[in-house]
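Checklist before submission:
- one chain only
- standard amino acids only
- sequence pasted in full

Submission:
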Amino acid sequence: MTMEFTDRLTRVEPSATLAISALATELENDGVDVVDLSVGEPDFPTPENIVEAGKDAMDAGHTGYTTSAGIIDLREAISEKLADDGLDHGPEEIIVTPGAKQALYEIVQALIADGDEVALLDPAWVSYEAMVKMAGGELTRVDLSETDFQLEPALDDLEAAVSDETELLIVNSPSNPTGAVYSDAALEGVRDLAVEHDITVISDEIYKEITYGVEPTSLGTLEGMADRTVTVNGFSKAYSMTGWRLGYFAGPEDLIDQAGKLHSHSVSSAVNFVQHAGLEALETEEPVAEMVDAFEDRRDLVIDLLEEHDVDVAEPEGAFYMMVPVDDDDQAWCEGALEDAHVATVPGSAFGTPGYARISYAASEERLEKGIERLADEGYF
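Returned file contents:
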């Protein structure tokens, strides 16, 4: 029997980051020592108090269904967290999801129909494009590689790219894959264009708690943006809870009502005891601060190591990634780096920006040093 698959799936490719990670795992299974700088996952364990909260929740019997949008205690805590960021969303305007990726998927499915235009800022996280294509949307893209990945100098390019036909703009600050944190002036430029052309904006703030000497602004706090911004965040990065799969989004209540249909008919709800662990996470500060300090030290280390090989990079202000300029054929560069140097990176073309490789410095200083040394020894720098 030959199965025929839908266009919404055949027009997208598997996640490039996960594909590289899978190849690295295959080599490791064959006994090869791979320095994996490809994965967007903190190398720190989930803080013990959060783990204990999850265990306690299971012991207390929190193993059944919850309301689809999430337990009220967690939504109230998220509402308070958002208020601290300057956003006004009650629990009824929040949906708790199995990871922030699910939140983004539900928003795009709720807002985008066949032929709708969605604007991306390149380099853009790999799954944005796939989600838009699965919804039948069309992409317009703004290249930030000529402005050290900052948006403010490229506002004219964004203005030229959007129009009254643009339904959705996705903004990710701090950014994956660049680590850029967009300035208030850049976000005000986004606001002006969104209001002028009546564009809904997704503000993906999954790395908001991981910054170095800058304080990122939430788009929804700007005048004119409260009713047109959907804010996405989660627990994977800041609290090292990637495998727990817990995220959320907040937005206008009519969007929550419509996206809630998809949520209830697909994932039903986030895992009960994981939501209780999320409650504890929102009260966790010291381990997060320690992790961010370590990431900053690692960022500085990698920049120094690259400078020794005459490789200049735009300094990340947040997240734990940087874009490294490589050969024009970045796919071949990354494949060769894995095969020859046994160092896993992600090609920039996966993010819409050829000629770069994304390096994650969510690895120990020892592994980072070894990875850069191997790449240099094999002639990749």
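Reviewer check: DSSP finds 13 helices and twelve strands in the chain.
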